[in-house]
Structure formats: C-alpha cells, structure tokens
Amino acid sequence: DAKHLFSSCDGCKEDTIIGLRWHCLDCPSYDLCSKCYMNDVHDVNHRFERFHKSRAKGICVGKRQGATKLEARGMFKGAKVTRGPDWEWKEQDNQPPMEGEVTEVTNWSDETNNDAVRVNWNKGPKEDIYRLGTNGKVDLKCTSPAVGGYYYRDHLPPIKVQIRKSKSGFTTGEKVYLQKLAVVKLQELSAGHGGWNADMERYIGKIGVVQDFTTDGDVVVEYRDRSWRYNPAALTKIQKFKQGDEVVVKSDEHLVKELQKEHAGWDESMISILGRTGKVLEVDSDGGILVSAEGTTWMLSPAAVTSVTDPDPQQSTASGDMGSEDPLGTKLWHKSIESLSKDEQSKSKRVKPLKRMKTDLLRGCLKFSRPLTKRDEQFNVIYVTQPKTAPRNEKKYSSTAQVRSIIPEICLLTIAVDFFSSGLFSLLRDFQRQAHEQEDRGLLNAAQSDDLLRLKEILDANPERIDELVGGHTALHVACHQGHCDIIRELLERGADMDVLDNQGYTAMHVSTYQDESGEALKLLLERGFDPNVQHGNNKSTPLHSAVQEKNETAVQILTQCLDCDVNLQNEAGNTPLHDAILAEHHNMVDMLLDCPRICVTLCNGEGFNYLQLAVWKGNKRAVERIFAKTGNSLNVVKDNGFTTLHIAAINDHREIAKILLKKPGCEVDAQNPHNQSALHLAANEGYSVMVEMLLDYGANVNLVDNHGDTALHISLMMEHVLQRNPESGLELLLGVRKSSASFVAVSRCLLSYGADVWKVNGSWETPLTRCRGSEVEQLIRKIAACGRYSNAFAYFFS
C-alpha cells in the first residue's frame, strides 16, 4: 500500500494515511483515509480528489452526494472462509480443512493496512492471522461473504489486469477444461509437469480459468475451490460463442452431464439434442450459452458444444480430447456399414446424416438396458420383441403408420432398430423421451399434489432421484413453490440438496417466495438454516427480490423481520428490493421495507437513483411521501447527472409530486444542473405550461439563464419555431412524446405574464424579441417591448 507520510486523516486522526488519500478541494488542508471517506465523514457536498501515491497527481472524483453508493460484501467480520490459493499453513485450520469465521480485518505488518484477517477455526479461544493481499498472496477463500459497509463505486480507481499469453497458446483469464482422458494417460501427461494428484481426477471435464504460467510453460488453472498445474497438452480451450452462431451439441451423454453441473444442470429431456445442431440465442456473463435445438431451448456449458465451422465437430483432438464422442464405438458402425448392399452404398449421401440418427436410437435402447434383436438386411424394417414375461412373438412393421398403430404396445415392448427412416426415428425418439419424462415426473407429481405416501414409496425405491432435475425442477423446488411443508420436511430429512438450482438458476429459497402466500414453506426453510441472502448466479437477485417481483407480501414481511436477511443487497442492475417495490408501485411492500430498521436509505442503483429520486421519476406519489417521512433531509440530494428531485419531477411533468417537493422547507426551486438548467428551463423545454406556472408560483426566477445564456422564454420560442418549420419531419418523435407548437405558445404566454425579460441577450446575442419572428406570441412580445425595456409585464397583461 502507498504511504502518505506527511498527510494525516482529519476524520479518524490517523497520523499516516495508508492506501488512497482523499483531499477536499473546497477546504484547505483537509484529507481523509478511505474508511472515513466511504463513511461520509466531512461534507458530502464538497468536491474531493483521489491520490494513490504521495507524490502522484490527484484525480478529481467530484462530490459524494448523489454518487452511486454500493454495499461492500466479502471477507469482513462474520464472513465464512476456507483455504485459499496461497495456503501454506499445513493443518492450522484443523484436519480435514474446516470452515472458519473472520473475527477481525487487521494488518499483516506495521507497514501495511487492512491486508490480513483474523480467523477462528473451531469457535475456540485460538485465532490466527492470514494474508489477504500481502505481497500478492491470498491465503483464504470466502465461502459466505459478510457486509463491510458501503463504498462509492465510481470514485475508486479502475482495476488494471495484465493479460499474459504462453507459448502453448493459452492466455490468462480464458476458460479451459481438463480433457476426458483415461487417468493413466493424464498421469503420463503430468509427469515432469508438477506430477499427478489423485484429487485431480475430480476436475476432469470441469471448467476453470487460466491463472498463470510456470517458467516451464505449464498452465496454472484456478477453480472455485483450488488451483492445479497442468501440462498444456491435457487442456482444451473453451470456445467463445456469440449470438447467432451455429453449434453442434456433443453426443457423449455422460460428458455433457458432467459439464452441465457448472451451467444450469442436466435434464433427461436433453437426450433429444445430443449430437444435434442448434443456434446460439444468448451468451451470459459466465460464458454459458442459450441454445435452441430440436424445437427446445437450453442453457448449456460452452464446453458441451462445438462450432459447426470446425472441420469435424465430433473428431477428437490429437491429444485425445474428451475421448470418443460415439458411446457405441466405431466398430459397431463399421460392421453395420459393411452389411449394406451395393444399392445402399450407392446412396452414400444419405448414410452420413442418417448414421447419427441411428446412433441416438441405439444409444436410447442401451440406456434402458434392453436387448437388441436381429436386424433385417433390407434396413427398412423395425422388429419389436415382447419382454421375457410374455410368450416370444416378433412382429415386423414396415411403415410409420403401422408403428403409430402400436404405440401403446411399445410401452411394454423391447425395441431393436436398424433402419434409416428419419420419420420413424423422430416418432420413436419423441415417444421414448416422453415415456422417460413421464416415469421421472412421478416424484414431482407427488411433490406437487402433496402426496407424501407416494413420494416416500418412490424415494424408498430410488433414493438417488431426490435431487433429480425433471423439466428443470427438483421435488424440493416444486414443494417449496406449492407450500407443501410435509413434503419439504421429508425431502430435507432424506438429505435433499439445499443449494440445488433449477434450470433458471434459482434455489428453493427463491422459489418459496413465488406462489406460497401462506409463507409456511419460507418459514420452514429459514428454520432449517437456508440462506436468506442467496443470490442468483447471473442477475444477483435474492429471495427478497423475488418476493417483491411476485407480489408476495407475506414473504416480504417474513424476510424483513428475519434478522439474518440483508434487505440492502443489490441485483445486477444495482436495484435493492425497495427499488423494485417503488418501480412496481407495491405500496404495502414499500412500507414494510422502509419500516425495516436495517434499511440503508442512501443507496443508489446502477443508474444513480436513490429511493426518493426513483419514486419521483416513477411518479409514485405515495412512495415519495413515505420516503420523506423516513429520510426527511434528502430533498436536494443531487443525482450523479446533477439533477435534483425537483428537476426529475419537472422534466417528467409529475405535478402533484412537484407540489409536494415545493411545499417542503428548504426546497431550492432555482437549483441548476451541470448545464445550469433549472426546473423551469426543463419544464419549458418540454412544453409543460401547467408545471411552468406552478414553479413560477413558488418563486422560480423567470429570467435565470443556462450555460448558453438562454432563459426559459428563449427555449420555448425556439421549440415553437422548430415545430412550426418541421410539422411532419418526425422531430416530435425524436423529442419524446408527440408535442405541438401550441404547448410552447402556452408556455411563452405564461412566462411573459410572470415578467419574462424580452430584451435578455443569450450567448448567441439573441433576445426573445429577435427570436419571436413568426411566433404566435410575436405581437404580444413586440407590444411589451414597445412599453419600454423596464416596463412591468404585469401592468400590460392586467391593464
């Protein structure tokens, strides 16, 4: 950390500021450390500059008032931690490694600041200190973050990341996976490259991020829980895709299942898209791709697909990348192709695409462990054999129509197929998938219908299916959605995964806030230790966000009363649940959230709106009144673009809200934004004559000028002139809502009646008198001008 030897903090009185120094531009010799600066010590309306070194040039960051303020979450007091990438303290965390709790953020040495934490591993008296950035070393990894105050996001320096590239073609920051090779082969590749560790086997096929390179060219890959050193020959890059790309889903079912664990999970319905071509619809921030294939849409791991532009998407790499993509093996296919007649071989163009269909159907037969019967040499027919419990009776069907007629019977039959009819394949594939789904849905149906007895029977027979995703949901998700507490208890007692995600990335905690308005499921989950602050992997929404979005007042009440629930967590857009409630105009929820003693009323969302500014922008009168009752002094807080609440009300023509603001003591009716525009300028520019009159009634300066020297009258005359000259040019649409010149005429008349100066010269040396040519108020302005520059406009209007 930088040390500012000759600067002390005027907030906490620390003699030497370590880290960033914040210097006030409006006060002589006033400096703050980062902790005091972020805690709003000193006047937040004063401008500051940031110094990262004692002799560096300061960078102006502006005022803190109105700047985006976010909640800091991470390795603060109360956070849960485990071993991190640079751990070198043997079994200090007990054996096996345990989860510890941070008891203090401290210093590693007298020369550093906040670069270490004190951790208690066993809730005993002994505590140890670990590095948290000291010399670039991080001993710990955070498993459950804690809140550590707030920070001004846009006032901090940007993070600079140095990207490095190895001779083997890998680059730091890119995603890779360990190829699906035999362990023996991986052990050979690891020889002389850091060696092989038995734990490495768990990372085969998993996606990691390239962190660094050794001097020998080996690649250091970081995973969520640790880092490994690999021979570059054992790694494969994850392709980067963009919207519209055509891809082929890999056909190895086991491989795709493993890869999907990192991206939205596996669903048995995905069998239908294995080996199929699809199109990328969307790429999320984690690299996951939304793919449309075979009439269905799935979120897939980028490692589970290959681009169709590759020479051969199904071919393994030179190093044996991911193993064979054909679960049946090539020998089976060679044997089948050899049995083709000469006539069939002449139709080679048909063989390649139809071969893939045959692979999938044969794989389906093997999946259900059903024996294959003999095949017809004509390759046109399907043999259906009854199970062993029935007398053997082979039937031969040569047309799709015939197969359709025996669909009910196929439920009880074993299928063997050796044919190339695409229509028949699609029919059987769809039926096979539907039959499998119907079988799997028994567990979900029991959860949905609150049939506890049936659920127990299924799980007694198939305990491994407790966390199985069917149709994108587990039984726990369904039970929480429906509020069936007996089912939830049974599932939890049987060890259901508390953190399992549905196909949209939501946990059971999220789902419990959707439809169950009794709140009993949510209460039960909280009692069982579920995390009320769990956030969606991509959009960062919490269960409280979901409760607000689903209009579930009971869930909002339960969560706001839960002391462990952080009501200030922000989603990807920077919105807290209160921001969402204000936007949706859920008045009761706004009341509940504002009444929560843990609410931070100064938080801004990603667009820089605090709660009052957002309520004013939305036109939510009730929320404005409630927020005023809670905060009191936030009336003139300036947004990051320099707009006050009155500016926001004026430019949106929210008259009732503007009147509430204007009646408040201390409301600055002539406050100006960075362009020196007042609320009057903004209302005049929009043609809001009633708003203009209201502002003037409350003392707005009719002749105040903006940074172009224009008064509100200059602006209204100019807008009238523009619309008169371009009545059908589409300019009205560019200006926002449809406006007519008449609205600006009304504004000009109002301004003139309140004494607007017709002789006022702007930055272009124009006066309203010179600008009014052709205006409907031209004669009125000329008559006022004829009365003399210092005449009283009121006298003209009312004489």
From TrEMBL:
Q: Which residues lie within the region annotated Disordered?
A: 305-327
Give the GO biological process terms: protein ubiquitination
Main location, first listed in the record: cytoplasm
Q: Where is the MIB/HERC2 domain?
A: 67-146
- Enumerate the spans annotated as ZZ-type domain: 4-56
| Gene3D superfamilies assigned | 3.30.60.90, Ankyrin repeat-containing domain, SH3 Domains
Q: Among its keywords, does the record have Cytoplasm? A: yes
Q: Which InterPro entries match?
A: Ankyrin_rpt, Ankyrin_rpt-contain_sf, Mib_Herc2, Mib_Herc2_sf, SH3_15, Znf_ZZ, Znf_ZZ_sf
Q: Which GO terms describe its molecular function?
A: ubiquitin protein ligase activity; zinc ion binding
Is Acyltransferase there in the keyword field? no
EC number(s) in its UniProt entry? 2.3.2.27
Ranges of compositional bias, category Polar residues: 305-319
- ANK repeat ranges are 471-503, 504-537, 573-595, 641-664, 675-707
Q: Name one Pfam family in it.
A: Ank
Q: Which UniProt keywords apply?
A: ANK repeat, Cytoplasm, Metal-binding, Repeat, Transferase, Ubl conjugation pathway, Zinc, Zinc-finger
Q: Which SMART domains match?
A: ANK, ZnF_ZZ
Q: Where in the cell is it found?
A: Cytoplasm
Name-wise, this protein is RING-type E3 ubiquitin transferase
Protein's organism: Pocillopora meandrina
